[in-house]
Specification:
Two copies of one chain form a homodimer. Chain A has 314 residues and is α/β, with parallel strands linked by helices. Chain A has a single domain, classed as Ribokinase (UDP-N-acetylmuramoyl-L-alanine:D-glutamate ligase, 3-Layer(aba) Sandwich). Chain A is built from twelve helices and 13 strands. In chain A, a hairpin with a 6-residue loop joins strand 6 and strand 7. The first copy, chain A, starts with a helix and ends in a 7-residue tail after the last helix. In chain A, 50% of the residues are buried. Chains A and B meet through helix 8, strand 13, helix 10 and helix 12 of A and helix 8, strand 13, helix 10 and helix 12 of B.
């Protein structure tokens, strides 16, 4: 029970970026984004002790750092590189909001990123490894004083094409892999997500989250399966960061509750989906940064109303 | 209460066809298909009194008629045209099973189809109008002695392009419209399904079911929304008829329970999804025709396990 009294700490590692985004609804120039940004902000609604490890350039706005501070996110591990620029991504979404064109990618500080976990964060209880080069993800894991209770990682098809062996090594080391449906198929050469999930769990992870964008997410564990839809919305204003907000809300909820039962994992999927449903309502972090707990609870109630039904099988 | 004692009757109108189907898993030549076939078989697990109105040619196999008889489906309204051939469709599915190419369509008896509702079926309590020319759907509705308790119709983009006014007239006359997501968008010029649903319900239907194939189905009524996923399966062997099995299971469950509350509509969506999940496991009607009630209950339990979670918002 002592563990339940002491607050669990969550270390999130990934990108903190500047994004220029075009959607059918408008444009935003050089706004704050990046996977670790969304992880940390989403998780901050559930977990009081979040440590961020990432890198930005001199061009990163003070306002960005203030957003982290407002949510009590520890940025001791956020390197700020003098005379360099932050990782920059520019993209344009199509009308269906599920497909996008990358207009520009400037790695900048990310090219030479050497993640350093501050001494005080090397005992973190939970670890979220964002979509980075697998060798960098490993470098972070190796800096921990002891293995965290739960290690979750995200990845993408790019690493399947360019760093297969490192990727397989990392996948074998984590407890939870999160990946989208197309990537799960590419990773396993299986079209059926059920078969793909079985193969991926044989690679190491005890838990697998397959993200299907506007079509929700599947949680796999042993022979158990849970599905949560994405909340149907009037408008999806900007999908950027939705998957990362989902992942951050998911591991943030697990960290805050310190309960790894499958029933609690289900709840984590719902809370992650709820935060993600806010993320897409405005550009970048604007909506989640201003989110209030009561709005989150109302949104979770919407998920309950959306999927719950009452069938009595006698 | 008298209504609850007497069995409700369900009239289903649509195609009874011969299909030749190619999937990545195999081929089947001239097997029994058609929307009304799937409606009637799926509904027969919930409703004891089903009347079928459709048309076939001399080439329709005895075995097909026997399948209906085995499920106690009344085929008095199934016209058999001497010297003519049944409606024939041939298609090939792509590996993703969501897209298919039509290889051949022969209207045959369907070209001159004049649906005649037998006198004994003109008092049917529930009516399912399959995807036919809207003027034919109206012809059926006009033959009823009184308006059924619930009229549900399916349609497709083809009628939006070729019979818009008749389609709008029919949509204004029904209680439940079932349509797929792309068609809902085409019908309303709205990309957001929430906005599209609102517009469609303004056209007349009190209830709307938007089918999203492997991504489940949405039920709309007033400001209420319910979502049911499709059950993730090891293999989707043949998707043909899944949407019609869903619709048949849905209205069959409503007919069998004679309860039009939204909570019961949710149950109908789940039972419809359960029957559809069997339909895709084999070619044509093979799986559903051999389905047992206990298998159906087990499948519904899988849906419960798939989506139910326990969050206590205090």
């Amino acid at each position: 029970m002592a563990q339940n009294i002491r607050h669990m700490s969550l270390l999130v590692v990934g990108t903190v970026a500047l994004d220029s985004i075009e959607t059918p609804f408008g444009k935003a120039e050089r706004i704050i984004g990046g996977s670790a940004t969304h992880f940390a902000l989403a998780a901050s609604f559930f977990c009081p002790d979040i440590r961020l490890v990432s890198v930005v350039g001199e061009d990163f706005p003070q306002n960005g750092l203030q957003q982290f501070a407002r949510r009590n996110i520890n940025t001791e591990g956020l390197q700020i590189k003098k005379g360099e620029n932050s990782f920059f991504w520019a993209g344009r979404y199509h009308i269906d909001m599920n497909s996008r064109d990358t207009l520009d990618t400037q790695l900048n500080v990310l090219a030479g990123f050497d993640p350093i976990v501050p001494e005080a964060s090397r005992n973190a209880d939970f670890l979220m490894l964002g979509n980075l080069m697998p060798s960098l993800q490993r470098k972070v894991l190796q800096q921990m004083n002891q293995r965290p209770k739960l290690v979750m990682m995200d990845t993408m098809n790019f690493w399947m094409d360019t760093a297969w062996d490192d990727l397989m090594d990392m996948i074998s080391r984590v407890d939870v892999l999160t990946i989208n449906d197309e990537e799960a198929r590419q990773l396993t050469k299986e079209y059926s997500l059920i078969k793909a999930a079985r193969k991926i769990m044989q690679m190491g992870p005890r838990f697998l989250v397959i993200k299907k964008g506007e079509n929700g997410a599947l949680l796999f564990h042993e022979n158990k399966l849970f599905f949560a839809p994405a909340l149907p919305l009037e408008e999806v204003f900007d999908p950027t960061g939705a998957g990362d907000s989902f992942a951050g809300g998911f591991i943030g909820y697990l960290s805050g509750t310190n309960d790894l039962s499958f029933d609690n994992m289900k709840r984590a999927v719902i809370y992650g989906s709820a935060v993600a449903s806010f993320c897409v309502e405005k550009f970048g972090i604007d909506r989640v940064a201003d989110l209030h707990q009561n709005e989150l609870d109302e949104r979770v109630q919407e998920f309950i109303d959306l999927v719950q039904f009452d069938i009595d099988l006698v």
